[in-house]
Amino acid sequence: MTAPSTFGLSSEARNLHWLLTNLVEEVPGIQSVAVVSSDGLLLLSSDPGRNEEARQRLETPRTGPRGSAADLATVVSGVGSLTIGAARLMDFGPVKHTMVAMDEGSLFVMSISDGSLLGVHGSADCDMSVVAYHMALFVGRAGHVLTPELRTELRKSLEYESSESSESSVSSESTGSAR
Fold it and tell me: pTM of the full predicted structure?
């Protein structure tokens, strides 16, 4: 997997990137993963579109919520908000996880202790129990380190990566047009 650059990040942030990378690489059928803050902001994502091993495991080409981590984060945030609202309305206590099975894939959303959400988009043939188990492991390992400071660091890291890729695409476009 071509992981985002973790240079300059704290050991906690690097550890979360590593955990996310392992989740995608070790669990068959996972197509994309996003960690979303309680206010709906993308904190961490994995783009298996760049992961050759994950793509080779899938029988069909990668499809997802329009293929972007931001779109997955939006869906995860919306599903999380809806289920949290339903749980409050029904007075059943906090939501632990939500699974949505569709003809062509699955969506898994699991709460992290700080109110953040872990969302996974899986292929149609993924084993839902295996995905849920590994998500629970991730949540157990990540939940205690997602402090406000770490969430800020992860968010800034994503913003920096986004600005870097925008600058490089603008630079390559201007180079191409100069020829």
Answer: 0.77
